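tool_call: predict_structure(chain=1)
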Amino acid sequence: MRATSARSFEPYSGSDMVDEKGRYKWDPAPDFPFIIKLLSFSRRQGERPLTWHDYLELFIPLGRRCRLRVGDSVLNLGRGDVLVMDNLKLHCVLDFPEPQSRAIVIRFLPDFVYSFGSFSIDHLFCLPFYHQIEGQPHVLRRTEAATARVHAALGRLLECYFDKAGLPYSQAGTKVFFLEVLYHIARQVRVSEVLHSEYLRQQRRSVQLRKLFDYTSQHSAERITVDQAAAIAGMSRNYFLDAFKAVTGLTWVQYFNQVRLTNGAHLLSETALPIAEIAARVGYADQSYFDRVFRRHFSRTPREVRRENSPIVMPHRARRNVCVESA
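tool_result:
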């Protein structure tokens, strides 16, 4: 994308940007909760954590190819594709063919676009983020004719956003061009038939589940049953099972195992703790079972991950919480 050709890209930082609850940190300005990050990803960074976050996000890869995990799905993206991130699902960049790859990442809070004081029609701008169907991610492919209009709006957005000399007009223009981007995305993914009341229900459901995500990130080594998880989220068992699957794309058991295994991957790469002790710390009393499920999930054994990532010896400071964002 030509608007980024003369700009510098910062290295993606995953583990360093996680708060005490395991959530990816971003503290936006209250009067302008919006940011564009130009990020570079390197193979030397090792295992990138599965993460989640409160804010909404667009992800646009600039490399030839890029694979992402989002929930239980693996997405193949090409240069210039536009992904509407399903932010509450655990996700991360898996791999890319080049030694380094780059991406544009746009983060914003829903209130930047729509709040309960806005006109009801404004919810259409955020609808693609809240109405996602498992197995059908909202991806605008570069080869689609409509994506050219998104790219044109993105180019104007980037120029205005990085024009710091034009404050406060650059911020006003940023919002105008960002709404244009969202307008073209909303028209392309065509979910406008969803009622405003359903949109608000999805928002409330997401807020309820955040309490459970926070709790899980700090207590993943413990046994948390479906009934306990539903109680933490303040839902009945049956409603919880449906709501959790709709929001995360995973069953509760699948999600909980992903959190535990991600914790294990972090300890393998960041500490020199014995693998048996790591297995116990993340909730697996049987190391052989931990080895099997770890390999099934990451396509590598714990020993292979340890060899690739050259662990730092810091057993007394090893983090035990999962990173629960993105790319």
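agent: Residues 196-218 form the longest helix (23 residues). Proceeding to next step.
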